[in-house]
Design goal:
By secondary structure, the chain is α/β, with parallel strands linked by helices. It contains 23 helices and 8 strands. Strands 3, 4, 5, 6, 7 and 8 form a 6-stranded mixed sheet that branches. Strand 5 and strand 6 form a beta hairpin. It is globular, with a radius of gyration of 32 Å. The two termini are about 45 Å apart.
Length: about 700
């Protein structure tokens, strides 16, 4: 709509006729509310649909040439439209009276993502535009609050190429470090390594999401990677709002727990019984010892909580990258807020379906696992106490495994050098004399080098008399050297298997193109041959141990669903085949037992959530009806508009009630039916738990 300059009250006049002006005082162009509302819903459903695409579409429909300044006009009107719609919220944290006690009162997941970067405008030679507008929603944690924790992690005087930032003993060359997940995760490295290109002002976002995948909190990552200050700021806010008995899943929760304990939040987190864990998906890439302590399956009270809600959110928010990369700080946050708002609205619309699916899944798991465990326990003569003890025995075994002392590592190297020296004496000289005299000098030089290396190590070990080949000390450390070669062969086998698993998962993704599928297929064929060769090398080293380790076949590799299964082979200096917990049947029974425990916990939590959701809907509908009736008397127009706006919400609530009725009619439902009474009458805005 184009017009001549209007009067000072032009904004009110335009709104009255269903338009928003593109300038505050004397607009020469205006956008209809219907167009703005349509763009808002399209952009929420398809984040790639930008303002530029909308403006080009309008120009095409109105037979008008596209001009870049039209983007700014539409953006200005859209900002005003969103300001009008601001702060339409509803309480959804409902705790009822007489609820069963839960191990965790609230469960969240936290993680960072670097897709939503924003370019620094100064790289184009232009000055940044000053925009004093702030974020409207309560999602965001201010940068000043985040920077309070910037000095929580002290910089260590270490090699800048070392990602192992925990206080672990550095392994000698050729040995494997003790159980540590740090090297597997970039965000668990030292703070000095988490840098981002200076061309970005904001290098991503860090968020928290509840177990139902509602966005709870967010903060910007400023010109850096995933620093410790971001999760610390998020946890500080969570503890302040939601209080005690909280559980938080983080992909490096095992390593980050040390940072949290040593930070200024450590004491408060301990007093409030705050518990970190690792998400179920990321947990499979952690070693076995870490899984026993941090994986949700082995933590009482987690139920079927996966702890990967952030990954679901990022899979959708990544679509915003194109439209926010060159936006102003305010418009970037506004776009992200709108996306999160729509995401939460969509999650609320499917909340009862989430509960319905989880309830049926938990019931099926209980039925299946109970029957399977009954058969296994009868065949193996096991009890539930035995299965709990198996897990404890495995944890104790892994806790007792450490790297050899430094002297032992040096002794292992000494044995290897003695073997090399013997080989030089017996083979090199004889071969050189037999083939050509000219090679004597080269062989003698190698022999001298071996002699010098042996003498050097003997000096370090303070060895007065050289060890005899086959002597007791020699035999002892010869076994350790064989174990080192065994681990090297196992590491190579694990690396190839992990690459194969990742390629298989990538091959099944819908976004994988034809050419990439062909390349992956060829890579898998080559990888299969390499794995077979690695299996042969592993079996050779396994047979050289005393006692010999069991050989591995291709079928065994195919059955390894977790990377952690390799850890039971790698660190064994003692034969564990006689241990009850290591037997395949006992391990399978133990896994099923803990899955059954988590399924029963999930039913308990879902029973609470079913009643909370029904009570929240009942109280909201009653309150909304009262407000509408009062407004129809005092302000009929506003009352009519509120009633119209509430129709979609009422329709969603009706669907929730239908699904809740279906859940309560399930054969295995064990919760309390009907509406409850809210324990805290004060409205609490936040996630549904």
């Amino acid at each position: 709509m184009s017009a001549e300059p209007l009067l000072d009250d032009s904004s009110s006049t335009l709104i009255y006729h269903g338009y928003i002006g593109c300038a505050p005082l004397y607009p020469t162009a205006a956008i209809s509310l219907c167009t703005l509302a349509a763009y808002r819903q399209i952009h929420r459903s398809c984040p790639r649909f930008s303002i530029q695409a909308q403006v080009k579409s309008l120009c095409f429909l109105h037979d008008t040439p596209y001009r870049p300044y039209l983007n700014a006009q539409f953006s200005a009107a859209y900002d005003v439209y969103l300001e009008i719609l601001h702060r339409v919220k509803q309480p959804c944290f409902y705790k009822l009276e007489d609820e069963p006690a839960l191990e965790f009162d609230w469960l969240v997941s936290i993680d960072g993502n670097n897709s939503l970067k924003r370019w620094n405008s100064t790289i184009y030679g232009s000055k940044p535009r000053i925009d004093s507008r702030k974020a409207r929603s309560d999602y965001w944690i201010d940068t000043c609050d985040v920077d309070r924790f910037k000095d929580e992690v002290k910089t260590r005087e270490r090699d800048t190429n070392d990602d192992n930032w925990e206080d672990e003993t550095i392994a000698a060359e050729g040995t494997t470090p003790a159980f540590s997940c740090v090297n597997r995760w970039r965000n668990a490295g030292p703070e000095t390594r988490k840098k981002m290109f200076s061309v970005f002002d904001e290098s991503g976002i860090f968020i928290a999401a509840c177990r139902h995948r509602f966005v709870v909190l967010a903060c910007d990552m400023i010109q850096s990677g995933e620093l410790a200050k971001y999760p610390l700021a998020i946890i500080d806010k969570l503890l302040a709002v939601y209080g005690k008995n909280g559980g938080c899943a983080y992909d490096i929760g095992c390593a980050f727990s040390k940072t949290l304990t040593n930070s200024s939040l450590g004491m408060r987190a301990g007093e409030l019984d705050f518990r970190l864990m690792v998400g179920a998906f990321h947990g499979h890439a952690h070693n076995r010892k870490c899984q026993l302590d941090w994986h949700p399956m082995y933590i009482p009270g987690t139920g079927h909580t996966e702890g990967e809600g952030c990954e679901h959110i990022f899979s959708s928010s990544n679509e915003l990258a194109r439209s926010t990369r060159h936006a102003s700080p305010f418009h970037r946050r506004q776009t992200i807020e709108e996306h999160f708002s729509f995401w939460d609205t969509d999650k609320y619309a499917t909340l009862s379906n989430f509960i319905w699916n989880h309830y049926r899944e938990a019931l099926n798991s209980i039925q299946t696992l109970t029957a399977e465990l009954a058969v296994i326990k009868a065949e193996l003569s096991l009890t539930d106490d035995d299965l709990v003890q198996f897990l404890k025995d495995e944890r104790d075994y892994l806790d007792g495994l450490k790297l050899p002392p430094v002297r032992d590592q040096l002794c292992i190297r000494y044995v290897e050098v003695l073997d090399e020296l013997t080989q030089r004496r017996l083979e090199e000289i004889n071969n050189a004399l037999a083939q050509a005299r000219i090679r004597v000098d080269s062989s003698y030089a190698k022999l001298q080098h071996a002699e010098g290396l042996v003498a050097h190590i003997e000096t370090q070990l303070a060895v007065d008399q050289r060890w005899e080949i086959g002597g007791p000390e020699y035999r002892r450390f010869k076994e350790e050297a064989s174990l080192g070669k065994y681990r090297t062969a196992l590491d190579e086998l694990e690396r190839l298997v992990v690459m194969r698993l990742f390629e298989l998962s990538k091959l099944s993704l819908s976004g994988t193109g034809y050419k990439l599928r062909q390349q992956l297929g060829k890579a898998l064929q080559r990888r299969s041959d390499a794995i077979r060769n690695a299996i042969n090398r592993y079996n050779t080293q396994a047979a050289a141990l005393n006692p010999p380790r069991s050989k591995i076949s291709w079928k065994d590799i195919a059955d390894y669903g977790f990377v952690a299964e390799f850890d039971l082979l790698r660190y064994s200096r003692n034969d564990i085949r006689s241990s009850a917990w290591s037997k395949p049947g006992h391990r399978e029974a133990t896994t099923k037992f803990f899955k059954l425990c988590r399924a029963r916990e999930e039913i308990t939590r879902l029973n609470v959530e079913v009643r909370r959701l029904r009570t929240a809907i009942h109280d909201e509908e009653r309150h909304m009806l009262t407000v509408i009736q009062k407004l129809q008397v005092s302000d009929p127009h506003l009352g009519c508009e509120l009633q119209r706006q509430h129709r979609s919400r009422a329709a969603i609530n009706a669907m929730h009630c239908y699904r809740l009725n279906r859940i309560e009619s399930l054969t295995g439902f064990s919760g309390v039916r009907g509406v409850g009474v809210r324990a805290d009458r004060a409205a609490v805005h936040g996630m549904f738990e």
